[in-house]
Specification:
Immunoglobulin-like; five-stranded mixed beta sheet; elongated; about 60% strand; mainly beta
Length: about 130
Amino acid sequence: MAATTINKVSNSPVVSNTISNNNTKQTTATVTVNGVTNLDAKIKDKISFVWNSSNGDTFSMVNATMGCSDSTYNEVKKTDSIPSSGAGTTVLPDSLAGCTVVYTFTVSNTTTGKVVTTKATIKISPMGK
């Protein structure tokens, strides 16, 4: 059975994806940027991202940058074996002007076979906007 719960954070919904069955605890995953799942930002903005999970045993994050004015910055990076929860902070560099960055956090429970994926998106304004 799959369920999606929505919690309010700073007037923007935070979507927490949850998969469970009657025989196991729920496997959950959340990822946010500045406390929300969809953020409009500008160059030089400080971005804080946070990820959390429960009842998983493998964790990965994909950071996809796309739609950049300079296509050399379009890329996808996958990081396997990250901690079950964590946080990071960065300041958006000039090179990301006009880009969209999507963080995709995946949590798996190898015992139950459950996999949960959730995303947070940052849309960065072009220079001068």
